[in-house]
Design a protein that fits this description.
The chain is α/β, with parallel strands linked by helices. The chain is about 35% helix and about 15% strand. The chain has an eight-stranded mixed β-sheet with strand order 1-7-8-6-5-2-3-4, with helices on both faces. It comes from Amycolatopsis balhimycina DSM 5908.
């Protein structure tokens, strides 16, 4: 099952999480962030797709806002405020790169790039090559990323195009591989494997990051700050904390934990 370590695995390093959207960093790495804050090395969460949409909104974007209880005019402001509260709970600093997420992006003709939400998990990554290159340059110039002692990047489990773009841009950064941990995208990682992109674990090195009860509680409280996302996480399941806890406890013999990966170059 890999190494079992707690906050000592940070070795005094300050972590930076690359988060595709406002909630992804806390959903996936909130326990580690809480552990870093407790150890005196509070981290940073760099949210990539955090930009305001350019009107008019697509029908799919308006549908998403209604499902989340968000008004079209202030959806980003609401989500940013939720993120600020979550950062306070887990003890991290937010940085936002301001790129509009997939539901808001448009093509050269001004049409929605992803007019249906089903396309977001099926899109060819090659179609976003220009954005990947631009993001890699922005990340390389961003002090929170450039100077990060430990960078946490998504495996893109669940196949969301924004997660895949974030992963691809992170791959282009010129970093020592020992300073990059790849995290499991929650809540996607707890879905049945039949719904996930195949991930070959046979040639990887997992690190099980054990958490204290207090650190796990801070993570769950941080997740709870994203009230607008509660109706859509796990398809509206109100028992997300229970399922996240069950998965976390399965990683370390009953103790809550998060799992991170060091990937060989062939799998990056």
């Amino acid at each position: 099952m890999g190494e079992h370590q707690g906050a000592e695995a940070l070795a005094g390093r300050t972590p930076t999480v690359l988060s595709a959207h406002y909630d992804d960093g806390v959903l996936s790495c909130g326990g580690l962030l809480a552990a870093g804050a407790e150890a005196g090395t509070p981290g940073t969460v760099v949210t990539v797709f955090s930009g305001a949409p350019e009107p008019p909104l697509s029908a799919e974007a308006r549908k998403f806002h209604r499902a989340c209880g968000l008004a079209d005019a202030d959806a980003i402001a609401r989500r940013e405020a939720e993120d600020d509260r979550a950062m306070d709970v887990v003890g991290a600093t937010p940085v936002r790169l301001g790129v509009p997420d997939a539901l808001y992006r448009k093509d050269a003709a001004g049409n929605p790039r992803y007019p249906r939400d089903t396309e977001i998990s099926r899109a060819a990554l090659e179609s976003e090559a220009e954005l990947i290159g631009e993001l890699a340059a922005v990340m390389a110039a961003e002090p929170a990323v450039r100077d990060a002692e430990l960078l946490l990047a998504p495996l893109a489990i669940g196949n969301h195009i924004d997660h895949r773009i974030t992963r691809a841009a992170a791959r282009l950064l010129d970093r020592d591989p020992d300073t990059v941990w790849w995290y499991e995208d929650a809540p996607y990682v707890i879905f049945p494997r039949a719904l996930l992109e195949p991930f070959d674990e046979s040639r990887t090195a997992p690190r099980i990051f054990r958490l204290t009860g207090g650190q796990w509680d801070r993570k769950l409280r941080g997740i709870g700050c994203y009230a607008s996302q509660a109706p859509i996480l796990l398809g509206g399941n109100t028992e997300l904390p229970k399922y996240l806890t069950m998965y976390a406890e399965s990683l370390a013999g009953g103790e809550p934990a998060e799992r991170y990966w060091k990937l060989p170059a062939a799998q990056l």
